[in-house]
Design brief:
The chain is built from six helices and 14 strands. It is α+β, with helices and mostly antiparallel strands and 289 residues long. It has two domains: 138 residues, MutM-like, N-terminal (N-terminal domain of MutM-like DNA repair proteins), CATH 3.20.190.10; 135 residues, Helicase, Ruva Protein, domain 3 (Orthogonal Bundle), CATH 1.10.8. The chain binds a DNA duplex (12 and 12 nucleotides) through α5.
Length: 289
DNA sequence: TGCCCCCTGCAG
DNA sequence: CTGCAGGGGGCA
């Protein structure tokens, strides 16, 4: 579910609460969601959070690293514990439109217990996972990842040279984490709209000038979304760790807007399928080559 | 490089 | 009932 901005928002939230906190114990409710020996992380203190693309790494005091991939429906929900050691209920909805219940539910797959917090890894579709790595095995695991969109190494020239490597549709290449880390379906669609490029154009047809434009738009879109707290869709699968909603969904340009009018020219936004994924664009602003 | 699959649930 | 969903691995 979450793309780069959503994972970044989660990372910053958890960093503020869980840095220097010790994992006291964990309960694994779905064995496929956790890869590794839980004993390797119990009684270890979190010393650092970092993120590459959509992957969140949690560094522990014994040198091990917990890597979290939320895939489509993963959530990390943090509940403070009361002085009695039980989760402080946030209330269920309570008529509050910007926050939902963040207590465990039937999609909770892992429960991490800290002294003052409980962290729930929820994942309705069970695609996501948490896995234990060593620095070496993590490096191996991530060796093919492209540069993160917010990394200094993600330059216009890098974008251009990566696009040159493939004749697949530019949108599919933007989504390929081995080319660029962090772009998902929402931001690929919106970035191509802002760049006035049809999603089906071959990646290697993109010019240097167009690459510069895509580069700028990707960064702007990611930063805007982070500031807005990420994109919470109708199903609320992405929420912040405190249960609050992001607001970037109100700023989508074309994503999930098929049939509605283009924000620039009023033409009806079209939906097609590219590389098996729903793809949205303005036929007027993004003409096919 | 493109398809099927992993899963669950919701909307039409 | 079918189609669709913020992802991506495995296989021809």
């Amino acid at each position: 579910m979450p793309e780069l901005p959503e994972v970044e928002v989660i990372k910053i939230f958890l960093e503020n609460k869980l840095l220097n906190q010790k994992i006291v114990s964990l309960d694994i409710l779905n064995t496929k969601s956790f890869i590794g020996d839980p004993k390797d992380i119990t009684n270890q203190t979190i010393i650092k959070f970092s993120r590459i693309g959509k992957q969140l790494s949690i560094y522990l005091s014994n040198g091990k690293i917990l890597l979290v991939h939320l895939k489509m429906t993963g959530q990390l929900i943090l509940n403070p514990l009361s002085s009695k050691g039980v989760p402080e209920g946030r209330g269920i909805l309570m008529g509050h439109p910007t926050k939902i219940n963040s207590m465990p539910n039937n999609s909770t797959r892992i429960i991490f217990k800290f002294k003052k917090y409980i962290l729930y890894f929820n994942d309705q579709r069970k695609f996501g996972w948490v896995q234990i790595f060593t620095p070496e095995s993590l490096k191996m695991f991530q060796k093919n990842l492209g540069h993160d969109i917010l990394d200094d190494k993600f330059t216009p020239n890098y974008l251009y040279s990566q696009l040159q490597r493939s004749s697949r549709p530019v949108k599919s290449v933007l989504l390929d984490q081995n080319f660029f880390a962090g772009i998902g379906n929402i931001y690929a669609n919106d970035a191509l709209f802002l760049s006035k490029i049809h999603p089906s154009v071959s990646a290697n047809q993109i010019t240097k000038i167009q690459s510069k434009i895509i580069h700028k738009n990707l960064i702007v879109i990611m930063q805007q979304s982070i500031l807005a707290g990420g994109s919470t869709m109708k199903d609320n699968k992405y929420i912040r760790p405190d249960g609050s909603f992001g607001n970037n969904q109100f700023f989508f340009r074309v994503y999930q807007r098929s049939g509605q009018s283009c924000l620039v020219c009023q033409t009806k936004i079209k939906r097609i399928v590219v590389g098996g994924r729903g793809t949205f664009f303005c036929p007027q602003c993004q003409p096919a080559l």
